[in-house]
Amino acid sequence: MHIKVSIFLLLYLASPVLTGKLFAQNIHPAQVTLPGQLLKFIPKGYALLDTAMGDLDLDKVPDVILVLKAIEEDAAKDATKYKRPLLILLRHPGNSYSLAARNDNVVYCLHCGGIYGDPYSGLEIKKGSFTIHHYGGSNERWTHEITFTYLKTTKTWNLFKIIDESWNVFHSNKVRTIVKTKKDFGIVSFGKYENNY
């Protein structure tokens, strides 16, 4: 389901438990007002690009993902040098949060989508897992989806699946799909993912 993050945060603040799926696409930061306890996790020089909420560690309490961008990336002629960190924040009693994991390589850069533009197209959260969506190209279009799942035994999120699809806009019925799983890339923790699998 497609829901504006501002509405979702309002529901979050009103409800102690929120489960299911969130898919936030191309949210303008001006539409989002983060609670103060989340703002403190945004480092100097960065701004909010996107956010999503759901149960990430299977404790039936809604956690938060923040996707950040460098403030300078919008004005840069070449934004490929600017990272877009993804932060996993776990919620604790008393409505406090802690940073559980961070990765600066999982979200594509502003100019990594080719002629299409910014390839980042949103987050999808399910119980104990989350997926980052990308879309780009020109005549040759592509999508890139990366999914991580939570392991209770290690209390970490590991790479679960990568799905790449590509097609020519003049032959959109001929979609090429490549699915990679653990048998292809082994055990890769979220924090060590480098976007080269």
Give a verbal description of the structure.
Strands 1-6-7-8-9-10 form a 6-stranded antiparallel β-sheet. The protein has a 4-stranded antiparallel β-sheet with strand order 2-3-4-5. The N terminus is likely disordered. It is mainly β and 197 residues long. It has 3 helices and 10 strands, in the order H-E-H-E-E-E-E-E-E-E-E-E-H. The protein has one domain.
Overall shape: it is globular
In DSSP terms (H or I, runs of 4 or more residues), the helix count works out at 3
Question: How confident is the prediction overall: mean pLDDT?
Answer: 85
How would a crystallographer describe the biggest sheet? 6 strands, antiparallel
**Class of secondary structure makeup:** mainly beta
Helix content: under 10%
Care to count the β-strands? Answer: 10
Total separate domains? 1
Distance between the termini: 29 Å
Oligomeric form: single chain
Uncertain parts = 1-28
Series of H and E elements:
HEHEEEEEEEEEH
Which strand-content bin applies to the residues? 35-45%
* Rg value: 17 Å
Q: Please give the order of strands in the largest beta sheet.
A: 1-6-7-8-9-10
